[in-house]
Amino acid sequence: MQEPKRPRGRPPTGRERNKLLNIRVTEEERNQIKQSAHNNGMTVADWIVSKIEK
User: Fold this and answer.
1) Are the beta carbons of 36 and 46 closer than 8 angstroms?
2) Are 36 and 51 in contact (CB under 8 A)?
3) What is the per-residue pLDDT across 1-54, written as a single tens digit (0 to 9) for each?
4) Are 33 and 45 in contact (CB under 8 A)?
5) Angle formed by the axes of helices 27-39 and 44-52, nearest 10°
6) Where are the domains of the chain?
């Protein structure tokens, strides 16, 4: 007898992110954004959103 299959993947957070935003930055700005996100243990997208939610 097999156990029922569990859903795969990460569970939804409740906020649907379905809009795409493209911006132009310099190489230095890009590196700063990536480093700041990494230092805070976040993805770039989550880090940027955290800055606008302040």
Assistant:
1) no
2) no
3) 688 888 888 888 788 889 999 999 999 999 999 999 999 999 999 999 999 987
4) no
5) 90
6) 24-54
